[in-house]
Amino acid sequence: MDSSLLELLILVPAVATALMFFVPAKSRALVVGLPAVAGAACLALSLRLFWIASTGGEAALAKLAPPVTAIVPSFGVHWALGADGMSAVMCVLTSIVMLAGSLVSIRSERTHTGIGDRPKVFFLLFLGLVTGVFGVFLFRDLFLFYFSYELAVVPMYMLIGMWGSTQATANKDYAAMKLTLYLTAGALVALVGLLALYYQAWQINGKPSFLLSDILAARARFDAGFQIWTYAFLFIGFAAIIPMWPLHTWSPIGHAAAPAAGSMMHAGVLMKLGAFAVLRIAYPTCPEGAAHWMPYVALLAMMNIVYGGLVAMAQQDMKFVIGFSSSSHMGYTLLGLASVEVIGCSGSVFLMFAHGVMTALAFSLIGFFYDQTHNRWIPDLGGLAHQLPFVGTCFVFMAMASAGVPGFANFASEFMVMVGAWKAGFVWQAVVSVFGVVIGAVYLLRAVRDAFFGPRNPRWNKLHDAHGLQRVPFLFMLAVLLATGFYPRPVTDVIDAAVRPIVQDVQRTKTYREKYPDRIELAEAQR
Amino acid sequence: MTTTALAWTTLLAPLVAAALIACFTLKHRALSAALAVAGIGTGLVCSVAMAFRILGPGDPVREMHEFTWLASGGVTLKFGVLVDGLSVLMSLVVTGIGLCIFVFSNGYMKGERGWSRYFACLSLFAFSMLGIVFSTNLVETFIFWELVGVSSYSLIGYYFERPSAVEASKKAFLTNRIGDFGMTCGILLTFFTLAKAGIPGVSPSFTFTEIAPVFHSGVLKPFEADLALGAFLVFTGAMAKSAQVPLHVWLPDAMEGPTPVSALMHAATMVAAGVYLVCRTYFLFAPYEWPLHVVAGLGGATAFFAATMAFTANDVKKVLAYSTLSQLGYMTMALGLRSPSAAMFHLTTHACFKALLFLCAGAVIYGCHHEQDMRRMGGLRKKMPVTAWCYGIGALALAGIAPLSGFWSKDAILGAASGHSKPLYVVGLCVAFMTACYMGRAWWMTFMGEYRGGEAHAGDAAHAHAAPAVAHAAPAVHASHDPGHDAHGHDAHGHDAHGHDAHGHDAHGHDAHGHDAHGHDAHGHDAHGHDDHGPHGAHHGGEPQEVPWVMRGPLVVLAALSVVAGLLNIPAPLAAHGAHLEHWLMGTAAKPGPSWFPEAPPEVFHWDVAIGGTIAALLGIFIAWKFHGAAKSWSVDRFVAGIGPVHGWVERKWFFDDIYLFLVKRVQQPIADFCGFVEKRFLKEIVVDGIAVVSHWFGRQIRLLLDGHLHTYVTMALIGVLYLFVMLFATAHAGPGR
Amino acid sequence: MPPVTTAHYVMLSAILMGVGLFGVVTRKNAVIVLMGLELMLNAANLAFVAFARHHGNLQGHVFTFIVIAVAAAEAAVALSIMIALYRLKGSITLDDAQELKG
User: Fold this and answer.
1) Is B76 helix (H, G, I), strand (E, B) or coil?
2) C102–B703: do the CB atoms touch at under 8 Å?
3) Which residue among A155, A503, B133, C73 is buried most deeply as judged by most CB within 10 Å?
4) Do B711 and C101 make contact, defined as CB atoms within 8 angstroms?
5) B304 Cβ partners below 8 Å, 6+ apart?
6) Optimal mutation site among B697, B700, B714, B722, interface C, most CBs of chain C within 10 A
7) DSSP state string for C61-88
8) What beta strand segments (E) does B18-133 contain?
9) How far apart are CA B82 and CA B201, in angstroms?
10) What is the DSSP string of B559-596?
């Protein structure tokens, strides 16, 4: 099975999508069961992948790659799959969110605000999106990579547009249009960069090929100017989905308008595609560009962290609070990337994982009570912990994770980012990012206080708490956060092994050595 | 079992207890309590076992076990246990006092709805605190540092239905976060300064045992500025946790938590973590001057200001809270005066008698049916004799009356002050005087004289629902005080009363007990299941009465400890072998102890300091007796009038809360709102939607071309084709190569 | 009489194309426009066949047959649209059908 592990990871969601066409729309058990089963299967496969990464290291992962076959030889499109520690961790994240997202939707299907309307189409799009996400993480061919990237982005338009919120503050039509415009425009900018790489490599290699390995083979003859400008296109394109300030305005409203499973997928996984793509494509192909631009990105990351946090502080809608907090947290991911340090970039990837699970948990919890209250306006809530003790407890845990409390993966990853930034010499950026944690605590504790604590509010007396199987997805995500937070080393070792060669490539460039003449070198401790 | 295995057991037993409670026994009260007590009890047994191995007259022993928690890019974060004199002493304090308080909670929390949650959080706290104690490195310390903050948050906000408690828990968490911000920066600055220094043979590390020797070798001279700043930043963490001015504001509010929590966390152990941290990382501070000056100055200021605030408190817990603040200031002052052993000594004795005092206060509150206002107590000595005796011992120990433990530790600090800094010595004496005085006031108000609470409780059913009014309809003493000041706690109770109604908890059936709605309801927590009161129930709304043995036991044990804890460190001329505790902490020049601070002169008993301190304390007690004793020969009102505006300043807590409120409401929130405004109005509506509007406008213009006439389209297509033809001919004839 | 050369066929085809185009562009009646279109298609057919003859191969004939088939289908679709249009509007004047106005 190991030999076709990567193909299975792509095929399972793809086949599930295809099967979904034939599932009778009336059979709710099948409609919800199929994505859940597919999610469980993907989780099993991803965990196997992670296990191989964990025990065998990068060498074992390299052996998993199936033989490269040309699909369209005249253009150089190849069926090429490959995984490293980074993609292994990201696949696990996607599977977790996929499974949890379909499990929480079992419940919301019964109410009329969730996805009660046309659940079959919902899950069809959901599975299509997941297929695209797995494609982004696993394809090593720029054409298929880009194809998957778009495949992951476009269904979101319909998920929000058809099942989204109709509240005035988060109008679904506006949100869906904005999200799609930003992401496709970003993708187009990135496409310019990708095509530049393709043609440059074509000229150098003498044959057209979208294969990442072919482009990397030609990289030695990319001159610094080409790398710098191509990197700019790639980075700005991918930064739109990260989302980097000031390209972030699509994201909070996108979260707010989407249905619970949609927000989970969107904030949990989709936003991670950008940073992943930067590390997978932009860093290795244009290391000079990475070294050139990253100090400026560190400044923007600071903006993300502080500005996002402050705006979150001014919000009254629960989903907007979490939405802006996401853009604040993704600032840490950006800062980690910008540090061009192994620990910083590893921290970024780990944070993508941690934040993905945490934010999926947040949106599933909000979705749970929103389905019943039809209200997320924080001043209207209050005292929910009386009626929803379990959900309230989970929410407090989630807030703690988000606020960067140790014991959750978020702390470890954010700490790695801070260390990385400081090590890179971005002392002030690091200090600001540390202060961002204080800001985070302010708005999260406020949200917890105003929504869950305080005297019992009789208005919400009819609410019922999660019970029995409904608790499973919440506990599952919480357990993941706690387990990886208590002992992060298994995960960080896998990420570190994947990230290190990429980052060291950049550190060897001329631009980097000129920019950081007195960088602190730390001897690798024996592991 | 190896020593480190014992430490691991001590550390993990409470965590296991917390996890088991959270996962399995949320519904089983007895099991939850048993698990929690078993967890901390295991810790205590292991700590005692470690003490026998580590603490002794010989050279300091240090044992360590570490594993890699996270490693990436040359930075390794480790986890482990470091067992030496300092950590064993502290773990004895935490587990010993913790056990007493866990047991006491079994009585105090009887009938509370969140019983299992309480014990789970308490166990989580014990785990986090022990993590700080046994931590081997700065990052591990920081991790547990944050975790105690979380457990503190969860326990201060235990009565989450009470807005004031929720607010207090948030305040505590955020204030500590500010300190943690500084601490993180300090840790990173120290680490990377060491890395930059690139001393051969020393790899930069967070581990104490690895970096401490470097600091003493003097090779870091060129990096002095950064390292001193790093030390100060690490201290900001301690400043928040140990509630030093100006980050002290959270501690008085933290009294919203249940009283045993206040005793354990906000008096005995957690707030002392800052002092412990500085002792543990003393090597960071020792080589530099200004950070220690700041430490000493802030400590002295805290000690003084907090002591003044204790005079205006009327809540039986608030007095102790301010006293805790003041004593923490004392310890911090000792740290700044290069006397970490005196600070640790005072930490230990203070933990005993302050936990005792808080538990006594808890017993009083319990005995008086959740009355907290001292003005409505009095005469409790006769009704609660054991509690009164214990409180008396605690108060005398706190006041520093020989030969109780407080005397010895306070004397050590005063001795250090007299040697290093005369102004701080004077501050120390003033604080000693004030401490004795406000404790005397609390003693006379609570335990002596006549019981003043009865009349307020004699009301009828209407009383129960008029709780806030009751709180404000204060006895005569109140008149001279600012009514807003103490109302805080009582408002909270008022909320309970409302909550109570809303919950429909009447089903608990007061009628079943055969007594009508009584004052108790107004003050009691809604969760206070009346059925569980047992024999106690018979006295509802009536006379205060002595607490059950499960609560009295811990009081007696702690009282005994408060008496004898001074024996740990009797200084040289009085004891044959000199000060033990100092020896454990300081070690010798050749083999430095856990604080890596070998240059300290040995602690010596100074008669002049001892006599000065004792006179100050006795004077304080005398004055308290004059004001509040049976005779009441001096009038508080006249005194208040005499000192003019100062009384107002003290009542306003020296304006610290007002300043913070101003910063939050007038600075922080406007900035946030401004960012929200920029996001919504500028970025979204002008920039982003502006681009959309402009493209929409262009779209509208271009749309005009498509008028719906087929002929227009065909004509346009024709023009296009003609254009292509023209271009084709033009390039065919003018192109290169032709 | 001079022989009929390819140039003549192409000339005729161009004239047919011009006439058809003129009809399409100027006429308001949908049927006449359709007739113009048919003329243009046949002009193309004529050119195809003429060039096939000129080159002596069959490729032009192949295209011609395809065009005839497409033209038949197109006429069928167009006429049915016109009937629908007539039912809807009561006339087949193209100026009445402006629903696609931007």
Assistant:
1) strand
2) yes
3) B133
4) no
5) B326, B329, B427, B430, B431, B434
6) B714
7) HHHHHHHHHHHHHHHHHHHHHHHHHHHH
8) 63-72, 75-83
9) 22
10) HHHHHHGGGGG--TTTSTT--HHHHHHHB-SSSB-TT-
Helix (H, G, I), strand (E, B) or coil at A374: coil
Is A71 strand, coil or helix? strand
Phi/psi at C6 (nearest 5 deg)? Answer: -60, -35
Do A283 and A219 form a contact (C-beta atoms < 8 A)?
no
- Chain B residues whose CB is inside 8 A of the A348 CB are none
**DSSP string covering B386-427:** HHHHHHHHHHHHHHT-TTSHHHHHHHHHHHHHHHH-HHHHHH
Structural tokens at position B226: 């950064």
DSSP designation for B227:
H
Inter-axis angle of helices B405-420 and B549-564, nearest 10: 40
ipTM, 2 dp:
0.91
Give the position of tokens 């706190």: B398
Distance from CA of A99 to the nearest CA of B (A): 23
The closest of B471, B324, B345 to B90, measured between CA atoms, is: B345
- What's at B41, amino acid-wise? G
Question: Which among B74, B143, B672 has the least Cβ separation from residue A524?
Answer: B74
The closest CB to that of A445, out of B174, B188, B502, belongs to: B174
Chain A contact partners (≥3 CB pairs within 8 A)? B
Rg (CA), chain C: 17
Phi/psi at A81 (5° precision): -115, 150
Of B705, B709, B714, the CB nearest to C95: B709
Count of CB contacts below 8 A, A vs B? 165
Domains, chain C, ranges and CATH? 6-98 (1.10.287.3510)
Contact call for residues B128 and B30 (beta carbons, < 8 A): no
* Residue B715 C-alpha, separation from nearest chain C C-alpha, in angstroms: 7
Residue B85 CA to residue B597 CA, distance in Å, equals: 13
Residues paired with A72 in a beta bridge: A77
Considering only CB atoms, which chain C residues are within 8 Å of B715? 25
In this structure, what token pair is assigned to residue B520?
């108790």
What is the C-alpha separation between B67 and B81, in angstroms, rounded?
Answer: 10
Q: Which residues of A363-389 are buried (b: 16+ CB within 10 A; e: fewer)?
A: bbbbbbbbbbbeebebeebbbbbbbbb
- Tell me if A449 and B170 make a contact (CB, 8 A cut-off): yes
Nearest by CB: B710 against C21, C94, C102: C94
The residue among B288, B247, B241, B284 whose CA lies nearest residue B265 is B241
Tell me how close the Cα of C26 comes to any Cα of chain B, in angstroms. 7
**pLDDT one-digit tens code per residue, B164-183:** 899 899 999 999 999 999 99
Neighbours of C9 (CB within 10 A): 17
pLDDT tens string for chain A (527 positions)?
677 888 889 999 999 999 988 888 777 778 888 888 999 999 999 999 999 988 988 888 888 888 888 888 888 899 989 888 899 999 999 999 999 988 887 755 444 445 666 778 888 888 999 999 999 999 999 999 999 998 888 888 888 888 877 776 667 788 888 888 888 889 999 999 999 999 989 888 888 889 888 888 888 888 888 999 999 999 999 998 888 888 888 888 888 888 888 888 888 898 899 999 999 999 999 888 888 888 888 998 998 899 889 888 888 888 889 889 998 999 999 999 998 889 999 999 999 999 999 999 999 898 888 878 878 888 888 888 888 888 889 999 999 999 989 989 999 999 999 999 998 888 898 999 999 999 999 999 988 888 888 888 888 888 888 777 788 889 999 999 999 999 999 999 999 999 999 988 888 888 888 887 777 666 554 43
User: How far, in Å, CA of B336 to CA of B300, rounded?
Assistant: 9
Judge whether B386 and B556 are in contact, CB under 8 Å: yes
Contact flag C94-B715 (C-beta cutoff 8 Å): no
Asked whether the bond before B403 is cis by omega within 30 degrees of 0, the reply is: yes
Which residues in chain B are contacts of A520 at CB distance < 8 A?
192, 195-196
